[in-house]
C-alpha cells in the first residue's frame, strides 16, 4: 500500500513539487525506494515530472482505471470491496459468473477497461471501447424469492441514475425497465442475469455499461441519434473511479433500504425518475403487442399499462415500438 | 436402425424361437449379418438363446437403458426427441446446462444410468446408484416472464406423478412444491434450475430423479423411513424405458396445455394431487417461519397459508418443519 501513500502525497500537493527527501522522510523509505515507486506509477500511466533539487510533481493521471485510484474512493461496506480489474475481457458478465459459481461473495465487482464481447439485452452486442467507459458487473446474492427478481432490475436503474447525477450535473430519465436516458438518448445499459434453483435465487449478476467519456467518433454512425456519452452530454470528462465508487455507494444504500423496507421506497424513487409513465407507448411482448399508457409499477416490478378500452394490463418483458401517433 | 428391427422381431415372438433364416429374410440381410446383430444385442445386455435348427429366442433384457428400447416407446413431438444417454455422469443437470448454453433446443433430454454427484434441493446430494433409477434432465425454453417460473415447478410435479401412475398402480401425493410421496415417503425429487436475462427466461433445466427399482439395501439406514422406491412400494420391477417415455408424454401434453390455456388447469391438477393443502404445517422460509394451514396456490405458484389470526400469507420458498401438534 506504500504506492498509494506516495500517490496521495503527490496529489496533496496539487501540481507543486515535492522533494525526494521529503517523500523519503514521510514514507519512511530510502530515496532509491521512492524512485522505484515513481517508476511504478509512471508505468501505470501517471505523468510525473522529476526536476533535480525540486523533486517530483504529478502532471497527469492515467486514463486507465487502477486499484490505487479506485480503492480510496470506495466508501461501501460490502459492494465493490472484492474487486477484479481487467484490461481486457470477453465480457465482465462471464468473468463474474465464473466467480459466482466458485462461491464469490455478494458485492464482488468485476471491472474491465475494454470488453471484446460486451453484451446488451437480448443477445445484442454492447459497444465497450477501451479506456472510455465503465463496463462492470456486480454480484448479488439476494434472499428474495425468484418472482421478485424484476424488482432488482428497477433498483439497479435507480442506483445508477442517482450515482451518475452525483458525479455530473445531468438530468437522467429511466425508461422502463432500466435504460437510462439524457434528452432521450441512451447513456447506459443494465443487464441482470439470474440463476435460480426452484424458487430460490442462487445469484444475480448486474451488468452495467456507462458510456462515460466516449467521443462522437467512438460511435458507429447509426447509434449517434440514439446514444450519447456523459462527456458529450455535459462537456466534462468524467472521473471514472469516482463514478464507480458512487455507483457502489448508491447501490449498497438502496439495497440495504430494499432489504429493510421492501420494494415500496424503491418503486417511489423509480417512478420519480421515470420517463415512461404517462406517455402513450407500444410495447412488444413475447405474448403480443400491448398499446396504451403506462401508469405505474406493480408489486413485482411489472409495468401496468392502461389500454384504450380502460382495462389495465401488466407487462413483464417488452420492447418499445413506435407509437402510431394520435 | 436395423438393430431395432431385429429386437422387435424377437420381441414380437414373446419368448418363442425365431429361425435365423426367417430373420434374415424379414430384415433382408445375410445370416452372418444377423449373427453380428445378435452379438451386438448380447453385448448390450440382452440375453439371447441360440439353438441350432430352432433359431434365436429373447430370454432377458438388459437392466441398462438403451436408445434401442427407449426410442420406439417415445410418442412425443419434441420432448425427449433429442436424447443423450450416459452410463456415468457427475450430474445430468450439469451435462444439460452445457448443452443449453451451446443452444440445444427445447425438449433435449439427458439420461444417466448413474450420477456420481447427483444434486437435490439446496445443494443436498441425491442418491443415484447405477441401473436402478431414472436420473434425467429435460430442457425447456419457455416464453414466459421470469416471475411465472414457479408455475413450471408445479407443472413438473403433476407431469411426473401422472406418468408414474400410468406405469405402476400407486397413489401418489404431491407435497408442495414438488416432492412426490407414496404413503408419506418420498419416491422422487424434482429440481428446476433456471437462467434468465432481465425478465426473460433463457432456459429452465428440469432435473428429475425417480427411485424406480431401488432395493432397501440401496438406501442408507437413515433414509429408509423417509424414502421408498416404486419397486419397494408396488412389488413390481419398473420398466424404466416405459417410465421415461411416459414422463416425456405427460410433460409435453401438460406443457402444451399450459401454453394454450395458462396456469389454471395445471393448478387444478396440482391441487387435486396435493397432500399439502388443508393440513397444518410449519414452513421455514428465508424470511422466517410461517405456521398455518396451506389453503391454495396463488397465480404465480406460491402457497397461500391461512395463519392462526385468520390472515393469509403467501410463501414462495420453504422447508417443512415439524408441526408443534394440537
Automatic annotation (TrEMBL), chains A, B:
PROSITE patterns: BPL_LPL_CATALYTIC. Its EC number is 6.3.4.15. InterPro entries: aa-tRNA-synth_II/BPL/LPL, Bifunct_BirA, Biotin_CoA_COase_ligase, BPL_C, BPL_LPL_catalytic, HTH_11, WH-like_DNA-bd_sf, WH_DNA-bd_sf. It catalyses: biotin + L-lysyl-[protein] + ATP = N(6)-biotinyl-L-lysyl-[protein] + AMP + diphosphate + H(+). Biotin binds at residues 115, 119-121, 186. GO terms for molecular function: ATP binding; biotin--[biotin carboxyl-carrier protein] ligase activity; DNA binding; transferase activity. GO terms for cellular component: cytoplasm. Pfam families: BPL_C, BPL_LplA_LipB, HTH_11. Keywords: ATP-binding, Biotin, DNA-binding, Ligase, Nucleotide-binding, Repressor, Transcription, Transcription regulation. Residues 20-39 bind DNA. One of its GO terms (biological process) is regulation of DNA-templated transcription. Signal peptide: none annotated. Residues 68-259 form the BPL/LPL catalytic domain. Acts both as a biotin--[acetyl-CoA-carboxylase] ligase and a repressor. Belongs to the biotin--protein ligase family. PANTHER family: BIOTIN PROTEIN LIGASE, BIOTIN--PROTEIN LIGASE. This is Bifunctional ligase/repressor BirA.
